[in-house]
Amino acid sequence: MERNQQETANQQPASMMALLTLIALLQGLALLYLHQAIELHYWPHNQPPWLFACYSVAFIWPTMLLLGLDDSNIGTLVKLTLPFALLSALLGYYVGLQVVPLEHIRFNALLFSFIVTMAIATFKALMYSQLWASGERFSYSALFLWSWRNFLTLSLALLFAGCFWLVLVLWGALFQSIGIDFFKELFQQRWFYYPAIALANGFGVIIFRNLSRIIDTIARLQQALMKFLLVVLSLVSLLFLGALPFTGLSPLWESGGSSLILWMQALMLFFVNAVYQSDADNRPYPLWLHRFIYIGVALLPVYSLISFYGLSLRIDQYGWSLSRYWAYLIWFLLALFPLGYWWGIVKFRDRWTQQLSRTNVAVGLVVLAAMLLVNSPLLDFRKMVVENQLQRLADNKVSVDEFDIHYFRHHLARPGYEGLQTLKAQYGETHPNLLLRINALYADRVNDLPSSSRDEFIAAITLLTDNPPDELLTVIYKQETRSHWSMQHTQRYFLHALDLNQNGELEYLWIEKRRSYTEIKLFFQQDNQWQSAYIGGFRTDQDNADKMHQAILAGEIEIVPSRWHDLVIGEQRFQVRQND
Q1: What is the model's pLDDT at position 56?
Q2: Domain assignments of the chain as residue spans, ordered by start
Q3: What is the pTM (predicted TM-score) of this model?
Q4: What's the whole-number average pLDDT of the chain?
């Protein structure tokens, strides 16, 4: 009865179709305005908080209305989705604040996580809103129906919009081939393709919403496929747990075991929820196979314990990172489901799926809340990573030279930027090399200006010889500050005087120690000008690297005369190399 009511509701009258078309058109115009604002530099292009907020509303609210509105729930659905759209705008505003100052922030990773989490939150909020607006009883089977309808309808609508765009491309190319460029030029205009593609997407939603029986048939087909896959996956899960006592956990950690276990849990939960979506009395398997499945489900908390242990090991070694916070959040959400199922198995045995519906509805709300919180100041992983890593530095768990400033620059957005400024203030005087490296990260590559002053650069040099010529230091400063990449990765600089060619005039060894490589140059005077020549280098991971660094610090640098001079034949120079 409920299914028939939903199918009837999805047969939209002309007035509703006109309303959905208008919503799609307005969404296209809103996205066009925002794109033009970025291109033509008018509001809100230079204000990322407002830009993120506007994009959030432009994508989220019209999409929720397109997928959820029908002539029986307009008022209720608008009341439910509008607050969520405003909340998404507030979260977008906060996330936009994390890319200020824009010229110093890399925000690709931030934008990706925001899009993914808000897409999941919107998906969850929409199906709960649809269920509430329909007046149905909250159950997992109803949520499952709405979720698959929304997912398949939107996916097919986007596919339809993509095909529509390909037809336009073909149209323009065909007419261009006979000398008519009008259509190709028209279809390349933003004022045309933004509304056109948005309308195509809207039409696609209308078309596929009216084909709810086909959508439901597709959902039932995937359920039938997953009935078989769930049995195989349960067998794999049990065999894997049975093998662990014989192999131990060490090989698992060496091959990225924590993520593999999380994937195993996620797939098991997905297949279980795809197969067991009806009431407790409707069993898709024979009783013995049903019990085999729920034994695999009952053992899922063991996977949670193993993955928790593996994640904890990495945190003890290296502290918190964005990926580890995300892994713990995913672990927590995946652990909630099997705990609820386990309680149902203990309490109801063969009728454990009675608890499945309650668990899924409740934990689904937890997932929705988590996806919103990670984009708010209440659960900002980037700030938490910065605090943890700075504390590890203060506790001497990591050295200043080994501190990963590039991770702060490229992955932590504004908190990373502020964290690096804190590092400069706290350690800039005592560790001038760190100051140079941080400055180089934010170098002005447009105007190609030095990222640090001459005094800052000279303060970072470890002088193994007193009173080097001032002109030499200026030459080294100008030469080395041309390469921002080199300054970002160089941990120590050394300068040592010696008479390498035994002519009574001093030359200077310039040594740059990086994380993985140490480079040596020679500075010498020629025609009253300081010149440089590359001598060589060695990898830091070589066995004798530590001894060489200790010798450099101690100034144990000697000149050893060569037994053989170079040989020149024509224009070719040869050196005698003695076999070991």
Answers
A1: 96
A2: 1-210, 224-379, 460-574
A3: 0.87
A4: 86
